[in-house]
Design a protein that fits this description.
alpha/beta; 155 residues; single chain; Rossmann fold; 25% strand
C-alpha cells in the first residue's frame, strides 16, 4: 500500500490537502495516511527564559491538537484510517525527515499561495519542503476568495 504524509497546520489550505488525499483514495484505492503537525520551538535560546519541560510539552501538544483537529475530522468523516504524528523543530526539515522515517511515497501539503514577494520576505514552508525532499511533493494551492473590501483573500 502506498504511504502518504500530510503536514497540517489547521488552516483551510491544509484541509484542502486532506480533501485532495480523500479524493485520491476514492479514485485510486487505499493509502497509508499519516498526518503530521510540527510546532516550531518557542525559544531559540533555552537560557533566555526557563519554563519547565512538562509545561512546554503540554503547550506543544495542545497547539498540535488544535492544528490537527480539522484534518482528523475530515478523514474520520470520510471513513479513512490514519496515523497522527506530532513533532517540535524546524518545520520543513522535520516534515522531510518524518517522510523518510515512514518510508512515505509522497508528501501532500497545502500552500497559502501568497505570492513571490511574501515568499522572499517570509519564506515558505512548502517551498522549502519541495527543495529539501527527494520524494514527490504534491502542492495543493489555497483558493483565492474575493474580499469585497478591494483585496484578494486566501482561504
Amino acid at each position: 500500500m502506498r504511504s502518504i504524509l500530510v503536514p497540517v497546520d489547521g488552516s483551510g489550505c491544509s484541509d484542502q490537502a486532506v480533501q485532495e488525499v480523500i479524493a485520491t483514495v476514492e479514485k485510486s484505492g487505499p493509502l497509508d495516511i499519516h498526518l503530521i503537525n510540527v510546532q516550531p520551538p518557542i525559544f531559540s535560546e533555552p537560557s533566555l527564559i526557563y519554563l519547565p519541560q512538562d509545561k512546554l510539552d503540554t503547550f506543544y501538544f495542545d497547539q498540535g491538537q488544535r492544528a490537527l483537529a480539522s484534518a482528523q475530522k475530515l478523514l474520520k468523516d470520510a471513513g479513512l484510517a490514519f496515523t497522527v504524528h506530532r513533532a517540535v523543530g524546524s518545520i520543513a526539515d522535520t516534515i522531510v525527515a518524518k517522510a523518510h522515517e515512514l518510508g512515505a511515497d509522497s508528501i501532500v501539503m497545502g500552500t497559502h499561495g501568497r505570492g513571490k514577494v511574501s515568499e522572499m520576505l517570509l519564506g515558505s514552508v512548502c517551498l522549502r519542503v519541495v527543495h529539501l525532499s527527494d520524494i514527490p511533493v504534491t502542492v495543493v494551492r489555497g483558493r483565492l476568495n474575493p474580499d469585497f473590501g478591494g483585496r484578494i483573500g486566501i482561504a
